[in-house]
Amino acid sequence: MDNAKWTFGLTMMIVGMGGTFLTLWILSLVMDLLKRVFPLVAKAASPDKS
Amino acid sequence: MLDTVLQGLSGLGAGATFLFTSGGPNAIMLLIAAALLYLGVKKEVEPLLLVPIGFGCMLVNIPLSDLMDTGGLLRILYDMGISNELFPLLIFVGIGAMIDFGALLENPKMLLFGAAGQFGIFLTLLLALALGFPALEAVSIAVIGACDGPTAIYVASQYAPQLLAPISVAAYSYMALVPIIQPPIMRALTTPKERVVRMAPIKRSVSTQTKLLFPIVVTLVTGLLAPKGLPLMGTIMLGNFMRECGVVARLTKASENEIANIVTLFLGLAIGGTMEGHAFLKPQTLMIFGMGFIAICTDTVAGVVFGKIVCKLTGGKVNPLIGAAGISAFPMAARVVQAQGQRYDKKNHLLMHAAGVNTGGQIGSVVAAAVMLSVLKGMGLI
Fold it and tell me: Distance between the two ends of chain A, CA-based, in angstroms?
Protein backbone atom coordinates (compact mmCIF):
# COMPACT_ATOMS: atom_id res chain seq x y z
CA MET A 1 0.00 0.00 0.00
CA ASP A 2 1.48 3.34 -1.02
CA ASN A 3 1.96 6.30 1.32
CA ALA A 4 -1.07 8.23 0.08
CA LYS A 5 -3.36 5.28 0.82
CA TRP A 6 -1.81 4.77 4.27
CA THR A 7 -2.26 8.45 5.03
CA PHE A 8 -5.88 8.32 3.87
CA GLY A 9 -6.64 5.12 5.78
CA LEU A 10 -5.05 6.22 9.04
CA THR A 11 -6.66 9.66 8.81
CA MET A 12 -10.06 8.07 8.33
CA MET A 13 -9.40 5.71 11.23
CA ILE A 14 -8.23 8.37 13.67
CA VAL A 15 -10.62 11.18 12.68
CA GLY A 16 -13.49 8.81 11.87
CA MET A 17 -13.32 6.71 15.04
CA GLY A 18 -12.45 9.76 17.15
CA GLY A 19 -15.28 11.75 15.55
CA THR A 20 -17.74 8.92 16.16
CA PHE A 21 -16.76 8.65 19.85
CA LEU A 22 -16.84 12.42 20.27
CA THR A 23 -20.25 12.81 18.61
CA LEU A 24 -21.79 10.00 20.65
CA TRP A 25 -20.22 11.28 23.88
CA ILE A 26 -21.69 14.76 23.21
CA LEU A 27 -25.05 13.13 22.48
CA SER A 28 -24.92 11.21 25.76
CA LEU A 29 -24.22 14.44 27.65
CA VAL A 30 -27.11 16.20 25.90
CA MET A 31 -29.41 13.27 26.73
CA ASP A 32 -28.34 13.44 30.38
CA LEU A 33 -29.06 17.17 30.34
CA LEU A 34 -32.50 16.58 28.83
CA LYS A 35 -33.29 14.12 31.62
CA ARG A 36 -32.27 16.66 34.26
CA VAL A 37 -34.25 19.51 32.69
CA PHE A 38 -37.34 17.35 32.13
CA PRO A 39 -37.33 14.81 34.98
CA LEU A 40 -39.95 12.14 35.24
CA VAL A 41 -42.60 13.41 37.61
CA ALA A 42 -44.34 10.66 39.51
CA LYS A 43 -48.11 10.90 39.19
CA ALA A 44 -49.77 11.86 42.43
CA ALA A 45 -51.85 9.08 43.90
CA SER A 46 -55.54 9.55 43.24
CA PRO A 47 -57.43 10.80 46.31
CA ASP A 48 -59.23 8.19 48.29
CA LYS A 49 -62.95 8.53 47.66
CA SER A 50 -64.06 6.40 50.53
CA MET B 1 -43.51 -18.47 -45.31
CA LEU B 2 -41.57 -21.43 -43.85
CA ASP B 3 -38.54 -19.20 -43.32
CA THR B 4 -40.63 -16.70 -41.39
CA VAL B 5 -42.09 -19.46 -39.20
CA LEU B 6 -38.59 -20.84 -38.51
CA GLN B 7 -37.32 -17.35 -37.65
CA GLY B 8 -40.23 -16.91 -35.29
CA LEU B 9 -39.54 -20.27 -33.65
CA SER B 10 -35.83 -19.42 -33.23
CA GLY B 11 -36.87 -16.42 -31.15
CA LEU B 12 -38.65 -18.78 -28.74
CA GLY B 13 -35.52 -20.74 -27.88
CA ALA B 14 -33.04 -17.85 -28.00
CA GLY B 15 -32.82 -17.56 -24.21
CA ALA B 16 -32.12 -21.27 -23.71
CA THR B 17 -29.61 -21.26 -26.59
CA PHE B 18 -27.75 -18.32 -25.01
CA LEU B 19 -27.75 -19.99 -21.59
CA PHE B 20 -26.13 -23.19 -22.91
CA THR B 21 -23.62 -21.45 -25.20
CA SER B 22 -22.32 -18.31 -23.48
CA GLY B 23 -24.46 -18.01 -20.38
CA GLY B 24 -22.18 -19.75 -17.87
CA PRO B 25 -22.19 -16.82 -15.38
CA ASN B 26 -25.98 -16.55 -15.71
CA ALA B 27 -26.36 -20.24 -14.89
CA ILE B 28 -24.19 -19.86 -11.78
CA MET B 29 -26.20 -16.82 -10.70
CA LEU B 30 -29.44 -18.76 -11.15
CA LEU B 31 -28.04 -21.28 -8.65
CA ILE B 32 -27.10 -18.42 -6.31
CA ALA B 33 -30.64 -17.03 -6.69
CA ALA B 34 -31.98 -20.47 -5.73
CA ALA B 35 -29.67 -20.49 -2.69
CA LEU B 36 -30.89 -17.03 -1.61
CA LEU B 37 -34.52 -18.12 -1.99
CA TYR B 38 -33.78 -21.31 -0.03
CA LEU B 39 -32.13 -19.34 2.79
CA GLY B 40 -34.98 -16.84 2.86
CA VAL B 41 -37.86 -19.31 2.68
CA LYS B 42 -36.61 -22.48 4.33
CA LYS B 43 -34.13 -21.06 6.85
CA GLU B 44 -35.93 -17.72 7.32
CA VAL B 45 -32.67 -15.77 7.01
CA GLU B 46 -33.77 -12.13 6.55
CA PRO B 47 -36.67 -13.38 4.36
CA LEU B 48 -38.12 -9.90 3.75
CA LEU B 49 -34.95 -8.98 1.90
CA LEU B 50 -33.54 -12.27 0.63
CA VAL B 51 -36.75 -13.36 -1.09
CA PRO B 52 -37.08 -10.26 -3.32
CA ILE B 53 -33.28 -10.12 -3.81
CA GLY B 54 -33.21 -13.79 -4.81
CA PHE B 55 -36.15 -13.36 -7.17
CA GLY B 56 -34.67 -10.20 -8.71
CA CYS B 57 -31.38 -12.06 -9.16
CA MET B 58 -33.24 -14.87 -10.93
CA LEU B 59 -35.12 -12.44 -13.20
CA VAL B 60 -32.03 -10.54 -14.29
CA ASN B 61 -30.05 -13.70 -15.02
CA ILE B 62 -32.59 -15.28 -17.33
CA PRO B 63 -30.82 -14.61 -20.64
CA LEU B 64 -32.19 -11.90 -22.93
CA SER B 65 -34.76 -10.86 -20.32
CA ASP B 66 -33.79 -7.17 -20.65
CA LEU B 67 -35.20 -6.36 -17.21
CA MET B 68 -32.20 -4.19 -16.30
CA ASP B 69 -32.05 -2.46 -19.67
CA THR B 70 -33.49 1.01 -20.13
CA GLY B 71 -37.25 0.80 -19.62
CA GLY B 72 -37.05 -2.64 -17.97
CA LEU B 73 -38.88 -3.22 -14.68
CA LEU B 74 -35.80 -3.67 -12.50
CA ARG B 75 -34.04 -0.70 -14.09
CA ILE B 76 -37.08 1.50 -13.40
CA LEU B 77 -37.04 0.40 -9.73
CA TYR B 78 -33.27 0.97 -9.53
CA ASP B 79 -33.50 4.47 -11.00
CA MET B 80 -36.57 5.27 -8.91
CA GLY B 81 -35.06 4.59 -5.51
CA ILE B 82 -31.51 3.31 -5.41
CA SER B 83 -29.49 5.53 -7.72
CA ASN B 84 -30.96 8.54 -5.91
CA GLU B 85 -30.76 6.90 -2.40
CA LEU B 86 -34.49 7.29 -1.78
CA PHE B 87 -35.33 3.70 -0.76
CA PRO B 88 -32.83 3.30 2.11
CA LEU B 89 -33.93 6.65 3.51
CA LEU B 90 -37.61 5.69 3.41
CA ILE B 91 -36.73 2.46 5.20
CA PHE B 92 -34.98 4.55 7.85
CA VAL B 93 -38.21 6.48 8.49
CA GLY B 94 -39.86 3.12 9.18
CA ILE B 95 -37.00 1.95 11.41
CA GLY B 96 -37.21 5.17 13.41
CA ALA B 97 -40.95 4.66 13.82
CA MET B 98 -40.38 1.10 15.11
CA ILE B 99 -37.58 1.73 17.63
CA ASP B 100 -38.18 2.68 21.24
CA PHE B 101 -35.07 4.53 22.46
CA GLY B 102 -36.37 4.43 26.04
CA ALA B 103 -33.82 1.86 27.23
CA LEU B 104 -30.98 3.99 25.87
CA LEU B 105 -32.38 7.16 27.42
CA GLU B 106 -32.47 5.45 30.82
CA ASN B 107 -28.67 5.28 30.66
CA PRO B 108 -27.28 7.54 27.91
CA LYS B 109 -23.68 6.48 28.60
CA MET B 110 -24.58 3.24 26.78
CA LEU B 111 -24.14 5.25 23.58
CA LEU B 112 -20.38 4.87 24.00
CA PHE B 113 -20.78 1.11 23.49
CA GLY B 114 -22.39 2.05 20.18
CA ALA B 115 -19.20 3.87 19.27
CA ALA B 116 -16.93 0.96 20.20
CA GLY B 117 -19.08 -1.35 18.07
CA GLN B 118 -18.16 0.60 14.94
CA PHE B 119 -14.43 -0.14 15.15
CA GLY B 120 -14.75 -2.83 12.49
CA ILE B 121 -15.72 -0.21 9.92
CA PHE B 122 -12.43 1.60 10.21
CA LEU B 123 -10.26 -1.51 10.42
CA THR B 124 -11.99 -2.91 7.32
CA LEU B 125 -11.34 0.36 5.52
CA LEU B 126 -7.60 -0.14 6.07
CA LEU B 127 -7.89 -3.75 4.92
CA ALA B 128 -9.76 -2.80 1.75
CA LEU B 129 -7.16 -0.16 0.94
CA ALA B 130 -4.38 -2.71 1.53
CA LEU B 131 -6.11 -5.09 -0.92
CA GLY B 132 -6.00 -2.41 -3.61
CA PHE B 133 -9.52 -0.99 -3.60
CA PRO B 134 -9.75 2.73 -4.42
CA ALA B 135 -10.64 5.08 -1.55
CA LEU B 136 -14.39 5.44 -2.17
CA GLU B 137 -14.86 1.72 -2.86
CA ALA B 138 -12.95 0.94 0.34
CA VAL B 139 -15.22 3.28 2.32
CA SER B 140 -18.33 1.65 0.86
CA ILE B 141 -17.05 -1.85 1.69
CA ALA B 142 -16.09 -0.77 5.20
CA VAL B 143 -19.64 0.37 5.94
CA ILE B 144 -20.70 -3.31 5.93
CA GLY B 145 -19.19 -3.15 9.42
CA ALA B 146 -22.00 -0.82 10.45
CA CYS B 147 -24.20 -3.99 10.40
CA ASP B 148 -26.87 -1.77 8.93
CA GLY B 149 -28.32 -2.65 5.51
CA PRO B 150 -29.85 0.73 4.61
CA THR B 151 -26.67 2.62 5.60
CA ALA B 152 -24.52 0.26 3.52
CA ILE B 153 -26.85 0.66 0.53
CA TYR B 154 -26.98 4.44 0.96
CA VAL B 155 -23.19 4.82 0.93
CA ALA B 156 -22.51 2.21 -1.76
CA SER B 157 -25.17 3.55 -4.14
CA GLN B 158 -23.53 6.97 -3.97
CA TYR B 159 -19.85 6.15 -4.03
CA ALA B 160 -19.45 2.61 -5.41
CA PRO B 161 -22.62 1.70 -7.34
CA GLN B 162 -20.69 -1.00 -9.20
CA LEU B 163 -20.24 -2.82 -5.85
CA LEU B 164 -23.79 -2.30 -4.60
CA ALA B 165 -24.90 -5.90 -5.09
CA PRO B 166 -22.13 -7.70 -3.17
CA ILE B 167 -22.06 -5.02 -0.45
CA SER B 168 -25.81 -5.12 0.20
CA VAL B 169 -26.06 -8.91 0.05
CA ALA B 170 -23.06 -9.22 2.41
CA ALA B 171 -24.51 -6.62 4.80
CA TYR B 172 -27.89 -8.34 5.10
CA SER B 173 -26.43 -11.85 5.19
CA TYR B 174 -24.04 -11.08 8.03
CA MET B 175 -26.76 -9.22 9.93
CA ALA B 176 -28.79 -12.41 9.81
CA LEU B 177 -25.77 -14.43 10.93
CA VAL B 178 -25.15 -12.33 14.07
CA PRO B 179 -26.53 -15.09 16.38
CA ILE B 180 -23.97 -17.51 14.89
CA ILE B 181 -20.98 -15.15 14.54
CA GLN B 182 -21.08 -13.37 17.90
CA PRO B 183 -21.37 -16.05 20.66
CA PRO B 184 -17.99 -17.77 20.09
CA ILE B 185 -16.23 -14.39 20.12
CA MET B 186 -18.09 -13.34 23.29
CA ARG B 187 -17.11 -16.58 25.05
CA ALA B 188 -13.49 -16.39 23.89
CA LEU B 189 -12.99 -12.86 25.21
CA THR B 190 -14.68 -13.12 28.61
CA THR B 191 -13.92 -15.06 31.78
CA PRO B 192 -16.60 -17.21 33.48
CA LYS B 193 -16.66 -14.63 36.32
CA GLU B 194 -17.33 -11.75 33.92
CA ARG B 195 -20.15 -13.59 32.14
CA VAL B 196 -22.20 -13.91 35.33
CA VAL B 197 -21.93 -10.26 36.40
CA ARG B 198 -25.44 -9.06 37.26
CA MET B 199 -26.36 -5.49 36.44
CA ALA B 200 -28.66 -3.32 38.53
CA PRO B 201 -32.24 -3.31 37.23
CA ILE B 202 -33.19 -0.27 35.16
CA LYS B 203 -35.53 2.14 36.93
CA ARG B 204 -37.98 4.07 34.78
CA SER B 205 -36.68 7.64 34.76
CA VAL B 206 -37.42 9.14 31.34
CA SER B 207 -40.17 11.70 30.92
CA THR B 208 -42.40 12.09 27.87
CA GLN B 209 -40.80 15.48 27.12
CA THR B 210 -37.33 13.91 27.05
CA LYS B 211 -38.49 11.18 24.66
CA LEU B 212 -40.09 13.80 22.44
CA LEU B 213 -37.08 16.12 22.38
CA PHE B 214 -34.58 13.29 21.89
CA PRO B 215 -35.02 12.89 18.09
CA ILE B 216 -34.89 16.66 17.55
CA VAL B 217 -31.74 17.09 19.62
CA VAL B 218 -30.00 14.10 18.00
CA THR B 219 -30.81 15.45 14.54
CA LEU B 220 -29.50 18.92 15.40
CA VAL B 221 -26.29 17.73 17.07
CA THR B 222 -25.32 15.16 14.42
CA GLY B 223 -26.44 17.49 11.63
CA LEU B 224 -24.13 20.22 12.94
CA LEU B 225 -21.18 17.88 13.57
CA ALA B 226 -21.48 15.61 10.50
CA PRO B 227 -23.82 17.26 7.96
CA LYS B 228 -23.15 14.74 5.19
CA GLY B 229 -24.98 12.11 7.21
CA LEU B 230 -28.04 14.24 7.85
CA PRO B 231 -30.28 12.37 5.38
CA LEU B 232 -29.63 9.15 7.33
CA MET B 233 -30.03 10.55 10.83
CA GLY B 234 -32.78 12.97 9.81
CA THR B 235 -35.02 10.25 8.43
CA ILE B 236 -34.55 7.81 11.31
CA MET B 237 -35.27 10.59 13.80
CA LEU B 238 -38.28 11.79 11.80
CA GLY B 239 -39.78 8.33 12.19
CA ASN B 240 -38.99 8.32 15.91
CA PHE B 241 -40.41 11.82 16.44
CA MET B 242 -43.67 10.77 14.76
CA ARG B 243 -43.79 7.74 17.08
CA GLU B 244 -43.17 9.74 20.24
CA CYS B 245 -45.36 12.77 19.50
CA GLY B 246 -48.41 10.52 19.32
CA VAL B 247 -50.52 12.82 17.14
CA VAL B 248 -49.71 11.27 13.76
CA ALA B 249 -50.47 7.65 14.48
CA ARG B 250 -51.62 7.09 10.89
CA LEU B 251 -48.29 8.32 9.50
CA THR B 252 -46.33 6.31 12.04
CA LYS B 253 -48.22 3.14 11.22
CA ALA B 254 -47.87 3.77 7.48
CA SER B 255 -44.11 4.36 7.89
CA GLU B 256 -43.49 1.17 9.85
CA ASN B 257 -45.90 -0.97 7.82
CA GLU B 258 -47.10 -0.03 4.33
CA ILE B 259 -44.24 2.27 3.29
CA ALA B 260 -41.51 0.07 4.80
CA ASN B 261 -43.04 -3.06 3.23
CA ILE B 262 -43.44 -1.59 -0.26
CA VAL B 263 -39.98 -0.04 -0.22
CA THR B 264 -38.43 -3.28 1.07
CA LEU B 265 -39.97 -5.16 -1.85
CA PHE B 266 -38.78 -2.62 -4.43
CA LEU B 267 -35.35 -2.33 -2.80
CA GLY B 268 -34.83 -6.08 -2.73
CA LEU B 269 -35.91 -6.53 -6.34
CA ALA B 270 -33.70 -3.69 -7.53
CA ILE B 271 -30.67 -5.02 -5.64
CA GLY B 272 -31.31 -8.47 -7.08
CA GLY B 273 -31.39 -6.75 -10.46
CA THR B 274 -27.80 -5.59 -9.99
CA MET B 275 -26.63 -9.21 -9.58
CA GLU B 276 -26.18 -9.95 -13.27
CA GLY B 277 -23.71 -12.82 -13.64
CA HIS B 278 -21.03 -11.14 -15.72
CA ALA B 279 -20.88 -8.17 -13.32
CA PHE B 280 -21.26 -10.09 -10.04
CA LEU B 281 -18.97 -13.08 -10.50
CA LYS B 282 -15.61 -11.45 -9.90
CA PRO B 283 -12.83 -12.18 -7.37
CA GLN B 284 -13.60 -8.86 -5.68
CA THR B 285 -17.06 -10.14 -4.72
CA LEU B 286 -15.44 -12.89 -2.63
CA MET B 287 -13.06 -10.35 -1.15
CA ILE B 288 -16.00 -8.13 -0.16
CA PHE B 289 -17.74 -11.05 1.57
CA GLY B 290 -14.49 -11.89 3.39
CA MET B 291 -13.99 -8.30 4.53
CA GLY B 292 -17.62 -8.01 5.63
CA PHE B 293 -17.12 -11.05 7.86
CA ILE B 294 -13.95 -9.56 9.35
CA ALA B 295 -15.75 -6.25 9.90
CA ILE B 296 -18.55 -7.82 11.95
CA CYS B 297 -16.14 -10.00 13.96
CA THR B 298 -14.01 -6.93 14.72
CA ASP B 299 -17.08 -4.93 15.80
CA THR B 300 -17.91 -7.69 18.28
CA VAL B 301 -14.34 -7.92 19.56
CA ALA B 302 -14.16 -4.13 20.05
CA GLY B 303 -17.53 -4.05 21.79
CA VAL B 304 -16.69 -6.84 24.24
CA VAL B 305 -13.21 -5.45 24.96
CA PHE B 306 -14.78 -2.05 25.63
CA GLY B 307 -17.23 -3.82 27.93
CA LYS B 308 -14.33 -5.41 29.83
CA ILE B 309 -12.70 -2.00 30.28
CA VAL B 310 -15.96 -0.49 31.56
CA CYS B 311 -16.41 -3.52 33.84
CA LYS B 312 -13.00 -2.87 35.41
CA LEU B 313 -13.57 0.90 35.68
CA THR B 314 -16.94 0.44 37.40
CA GLY B 315 -15.68 -2.17 39.81
CA GLY B 316 -17.58 -5.03 38.17
CA LYS B 317 -20.98 -3.35 37.81
CA VAL B 318 -21.20 -3.84 34.04
CA ASN B 319 -21.35 -7.22 32.33
CA PRO B 320 -18.86 -7.11 29.42
CA LEU B 321 -21.15 -9.28 27.28
CA ILE B 322 -23.43 -6.29 26.64
CA GLY B 323 -20.62 -4.73 24.57
CA ALA B 324 -21.43 -7.19 21.79
CA ALA B 325 -24.80 -5.47 21.34
CA GLY B 326 -23.15 -2.19 20.29
CA ILE B 327 -23.84 -2.94 16.64
CA SER B 328 -26.82 -1.96 14.56
CA ALA B 329 -28.44 -5.38 14.15
CA PHE B 330 -31.52 -4.62 16.25
CA PRO B 331 -32.90 -6.41 18.23
CA MET B 332 -30.93 -9.51 17.28
CA ALA B 333 -27.68 -8.51 19.00
CA ALA B 334 -29.51 -7.68 22.25
CA ARG B 335 -31.19 -11.09 22.20
CA VAL B 336 -27.82 -12.79 21.66
CA VAL B 337 -26.46 -11.04 24.76
CA GLN B 338 -29.49 -12.06 26.82
CA ALA B 339 -29.16 -15.69 25.66
CA GLN B 340 -25.43 -15.81 26.42
CA GLY B 341 -25.94 -14.21 29.84
CA GLN B 342 -28.63 -16.74 30.75
CA ARG B 343 -26.51 -19.61 29.51
CA TYR B 344 -24.18 -19.09 32.49
CA ASP B 345 -26.70 -17.71 35.00
CA LYS B 346 -30.35 -18.50 34.41
CA LYS B 347 -31.48 -15.60 36.61
CA ASN B 348 -29.30 -12.97 34.92
CA HIS B 349 -31.47 -10.56 32.93
CA LEU B 350 -29.33 -8.45 30.61
CA LEU B 351 -31.96 -7.80 27.94
CA MET B 352 -32.91 -4.22 28.87
CA HIS B 353 -29.27 -3.16 29.25
CA ALA B 354 -28.40 -4.87 25.97
CA ALA B 355 -31.39 -3.21 24.26
CA GLY B 356 -30.05 0.18 25.38
CA VAL B 357 -26.63 -0.66 23.97
CA ASN B 358 -28.20 -2.05 20.79
CA THR B 359 -30.22 1.11 20.09
CA GLY B 360 -26.99 3.01 20.85
CA GLY B 361 -25.38 0.83 18.17
CA GLN B 362 -28.16 1.81 15.75
CA ILE B 363 -27.37 5.48 16.33
CA GLY B 364 -23.64 4.75 16.42
CA SER B 365 -23.64 3.10 13.00
CA VAL B 366 -25.41 6.08 11.43
CA VAL B 367 -23.09 8.52 13.21
CA ALA B 368 -20.02 6.56 12.04
CA ALA B 369 -21.22 6.68 8.43
CA ALA B 370 -22.09 10.36 8.78
CA VAL B 371 -18.67 11.15 10.24
CA MET B 372 -16.93 9.20 7.47
CA LEU B 373 -18.84 11.02 4.74
CA SER B 374 -18.19 14.39 6.35
CA VAL B 375 -14.46 13.62 6.69
CA LEU B 376 -14.39 12.59 3.01
CA LYS B 377 -16.12 15.85 2.15
CA GLY B 378 -13.55 17.74 4.24
CA MET B 379 -10.75 15.99 2.35
CA GLY B 380 -12.35 17.01 -0.94
CA LEU B 381 -12.87 13.40 -2.05
CA ILE B 382 -16.65 13.73 -2.48
Answer: 82
